[in-house]
Queue: 3 jobs
Job 1
Amino acid sequence: MIELFYEVRAIANIKGWLSGEYFSVDDTLIQATAEHKSLEHRDGSDDDGANIKGKTHCNGKHASTTERDARLCRKYNTASDLRFMGHTLSDNRHGLMASAMITTAGDHAEREAAKAMINEARQASGDWATTLTLGADNGYDAQEFIEALHEMNVTPHVAPPHLRA
């Protein structure tokens, strides 16, 4: 499947449908197939017993026995479920995806994935000198991320925290 993505991206690039300079990044949570009942203590102890209802679980102490990389997380006011995080980097000229990846859900996953996808876009273009532009929502508003973008020769356009939904 990934080969198909790269082939379509190469065709889009040949046809001039990718600017290679103006990007947007976003992420979404992806529901894991694992259920809460697959959670167990990472250290192998069983002090929760078989019944997890009403118990507090956290990623630091618990992991799914069926999907070890799935993490408990939630977005906004939804229930906490086992999930992964999907990320896309879109070229703004025609809205085509320039890169995509799935990671373990976490506090910094979206920003780390964005940096990796920008580097991949640079490698694909072979142009390390051009200043890129990256648009992102307020989930990417972190000083470390903004500084890293500047070091990567990327101009960030990140929504400030006061625009949170």
Job 2
Amino acid sequence: MGSTDNRVNVWYWTADGRTEELLAGGAGTTTAFEDPAVEANATYEDGRWQVAFSRPLDASTANRTTIPTDQDVDVAIAAWNGGNMERSGQKAASEWYYLALGPGPSGPPYELILWTIAGLGIVATTLVTIIGVRQTRGG
């Protein structure tokens, strides 16, 4: 989790209700914040946990990430399955996700690419339909 060049804040919750806020800068460097600011609200229903984390946006101490309201943030998720004896580096981890928090209606940059591809697909489908109808009518 993280590296010496890119330390990360870790929000950690366990099913026994314990919540921690940690700093990690690579394997074996995880340390707890002395004054954690993260809270978790968890529910268990139909065999599934749902956990919502919260914390003030401003960083109140050194090494705590400020969550901006005017720029985008990269986030990743890791999950340990204790019933599967997972711990430390044994876990399921996501790739980095781009969380669009910045101003403007445009959203993340890849959104434009997706809308362009969708638009081209619509145009291509329309053209194929028009050509098919013309050929069927003999003209």
Job 3
Amino acid sequence: MTARLPDRAVAGLPAADVRMAPALIAGEVTHRRLRPSANAFTYPAFCLRLPLSRLSELDATGIRRNRRGLVSFHERDHGPRDGSPLLPWIRGLLAREGVHADGDVVLYAFPRMLGYVFNPVSFWVCHDAAGAVRAVLAEVNNTFGETHHYLLTDASGHPLASGRTLTARKVFHVSPFCAVRGHYRFRFHFGPGRWLARIDYFDDDDAATPLLETHVSGSAVPLPQRNAADLFWRYRWFTVGVVARIHWQALRLWLKRLPFFRKPAPPAHPLTRSS
């Protein structure tokens, strides 16, 4: 399976279908650093696709909701992080930001495996009642226990089509090998059968090429009914692998003597709007 779509392939892809059910997105993650020293990796990955209005359907799959289990999803891992329902929280955030998205909100995130999870980034895809995507909230976590949200919208309030480029200033520390400057360019494919999130990081606004290219993609697979054990055995090392790979790649960059940036204070405001 190819994780990356060329520019001409993502342009004009259809908007999301709000009839999407909870599903497993099985695919891969690719990360490529272009300079000053090249570094790249691709590895298998998966996440859950969770329409927030249908979280109760997780019980039928054996995935525990807000309870301990081999595989579980806890609402306190996202949004306000207090265990309260996520749908009212994201509705309130969108209302405060003047975003009209009264349809379903679909969260793409890793579940807990044996009670443990680390989501470098989760995506909340926010629809209106007609099914059009009105916003994407990128929820970014670093290994210091900090979280920041990037709210991606059209400045004029128009729907977001698949393949659209959305830009946001980088304000949050993620890697010690990247300064907190420059901007991100996001692109998505919102189709019901396939998920693609692409993030290119430009450390200089005048740069012709990005410093980093990252894309996560996969195909939607029905969740196994009442068989979370099968899901666990297929991906039992995944969460540990995410954290281990982060530190392994950091060691590789350190050995290449890339510039090292100390962690600054987190941004004063927990949310950044796209530009």
